[in-house]
Amino acid sequence: MPEIADLAPDFTLPRDGGGEVVLSGLRPAPIVLFFYPKDDTSGCTKEAIAFTGLNAEFEAAGARVFGISKDTVAKHDKFRDKHDLGIPLLSDAEGDVCEQYGVWKEKSMYGKKYMGIERTTVLIDGDGKIVRIWPKVKVPGHAEEVLEAVRAL
Fold first, then answer.
1. Matching InterPro entries, A to Z (predicted)?
2. Residue 98 designated active-site
3. Domain range list for the chain
4. Do residues 106 and 113 make contact, with C-beta atoms less than 8 angstroms apart?
5. Confidence of residue 108 (pLDDT cuts 50, 70, 90)
């Protein structure tokens, strides 16, 4: 996993609704990347809705917010439409970006081990450097905490 003050690993990923997002092409805007396990699951839905609800405030602070999972663009489109999400959702179907950011981890549920995305948020400043990492995110209040960190940049 990259660390604070490291240059954020660059990527190009397809997004919901078509097109691609190139991380380095977004500078000098601060960027929030929230990595989440799966579209349309309870925690992931709550997190995406929370970031959507604060999107205007993130934009007012000059920041852009993106959700990233291994779901396909088609699944992202359905997820976005079902919950009226306003945050771009990026598809890392191959998992390369999840690997680069260190969020693809061994997890455990009911004693069974499996690989999956650990809910993590990364804040990148206008120079492309990582300024904050939230590992093992708990959803309630998280989007608000990230917004405060963006405002403090």
1. AhpC/TSA (IPR000866), Peroxiredoxin_AhpC-typ (IPR024706), Peroxiredoxin_BCP/PrxQ (IPR050924), Thioredoxin-like_sf (IPR036249), Thioredoxin_domain (IPR013766)
2. no
3. 12-151
4. yes
5. confident
